[in-house]
Amino acid sequence: MQLVKRNTSSPAALVLAPVGAVLFTLLISALLVLWAGAPVGQTYGLLLQGGFGSVFALSETLTRAVPLMLTGLAAAVAFRARLFNIGAEGQLYVGALAAVAVGGMHGGTGFELPPALLFVLMLLAAALAGALLLLGPALMKARLGVDEVVTTLLLNFIVLLLVSLMLDGPMKDPTAMGWPQSVALLADLELGKLIAQTRLHNGLLGACALAVLVWALLKYTVLGFDIRAVGANPRAAAFAGVPVTRTVVLVAMLSGALAGLAGAIEVAGRTSYLTLDMSPGYGYSGIVIAMLAGLHPLGVVAASVFVAGVLVGADSMSRAVGVPTYIADVIVATSLISVLVATLLTQYKVKFK
Amino acid sequence: MTELLDILSNLSFWVAVLRIATPLILGTLGVLLCERAGVLNLGIEGIMVAGAFTGWLTVYAGAPLWTGVAVAAGTGAVLGLLHAFLTVGLALSQHVSGLGITLLATSLSYYGYRVSFPKVSTPPTITPFAEMGWLGLPVLAQQTPLTLLALLLVPLLGYVLYRTPLGLSVRMVGENPQAAEGQGVSVAKVRTGAIVAGSALMGMAGSFLTLSAFNAFFFNMVNGRGWICVALVVFASWRPGKALLGALLFAFFDAIQLRLQQGGRAVLPYQLYLMLPYVLSILALVLVARKASYPQALMKPYRKGER
Q1: How many angstroms separate the CA atoms of A17 and A140, rounded?
Q2: Judged by CB atoms within 8 Å, which residues 86-145 of A form the interface with B?
Q3: CA angle A44-A51-B120, nearest 5°?
Q4: What is the ipTM of this complex?
């Protein structure tokens, strides 16, 4: 088989591609649902209802979407510059660690700051922690040519162990009856609720605002131009005078900071303390979301709501019909692969000889 | 210091080193084969999970152990074929396709496990491979046949890569696909073959965990071993012999940290010992970075007729 580049993509194909990808994903998942012995129609109905069917369901979905938006943005920005940051999971956790360190650790130490200032410091610390964690791999890539995929992946494991270490020791909540969780944030630092009686918090507005900012940065600033140039062709960009190393380092700082903020906002908006299972792989899902969104910052918002809806819907569907919740991960992974293939087919024709 | 000597002089320590090294040897050889043909395969983490699951499930259903290994290898091969279709056939990003396959293979395995065993709290067990006591060699006699197989595969892969026309084609499509095509070698076919075979090895690496090292399937049992294999291949400069050495060296440090943790010898929090393998992998990458000779066409999709 051989690929032939299309000169023009028909508008119909551009619409049909994602629809086809979704249909393919639903078909594969339907087979798996049948394997589990559940009725397909009812299962999908429950999944949809559980994710989007009521104010409560929608609020749960949007709550879940907040960290996904931020890790999705982190991946989208980095991938735009061909910096394959697979370490958002670790960056999220160091962000959460930094947030707890600033916003929860000094109770009774006499170190008093107005809450508003402390809140800003908490977010800055989280962003900085995430940024610094990715700086190492970015510099190793730029200076030594070490593949950043492997280093960022390995750092995820190191950070999780670091979190476990902190929860056993310096950050342990003495009142948690031996449960491994950190001390809580000061109550003043917790984010307000967006809808009363739900878990949905103001972090959603922050995440959406950051998506718009990142979009504007990529589209309208010199740095954004440099990022796109480096992503399109690093050698040509260097030849045209784009500072490639500097751009990669800045992108790393930005990407790491976004993932670090995801950690801080999870703590401040949802949990108020840090545990080892705070993120069920938000960092990894962020990569999927960025790819589903075609690396577009505003697309990330939509894609994260979709993925969050599938995850939340699968939880409630699973309780009702007994299809394992892992179906959600299968749906997400299958849609990633099928969207990639569908997008390619809008640009290339496949010829069989 | 004497503590360390204590550990090193104990035969059971070296038995543990070789046992820990086995899945790494198989996985590293798998990654090496794919990358020599010019294709990064980040699907390894998920392929190992899938191999561990399907191999174990086959044996649990009553089939012989070797059938389980074959099924694990077959599962790996099928997932490899998918990776080849995406990265060679459609020339999609090798990074993204590999991660997608890891997500897909992992979630499918976990889904399959939960569908098959909806209400078990303790994982069902099988009888794993027995030690090869008949071999009469120290350290090796306390291993299972899969370890012996892994050790034999090292020279075999070296021989195929460096001494056969097939190996030459594999290395050619990984270094300069245009030139290979000019010599009448089908880049697509060779790359696909290398990915399928390499992924089969990754599947076997996974099956070692459930059919030899342990006797059941657990969630998170692969726990980053696949990513470590990807790092080990760079450390090994894409050579099978050095890959064996790297895997053994890595297993050596992993076994030491395990021993130091046990029996109240730990002076530091256990998490620091657990970090050691990952820190060492990164360190190894940095150390060899300056002289790493990547296959020239690694991660470069090849579209016939396009430059």
Answers
A1: 38
A2: 86, 140, 144-145
A3: 70
A4: 0.90
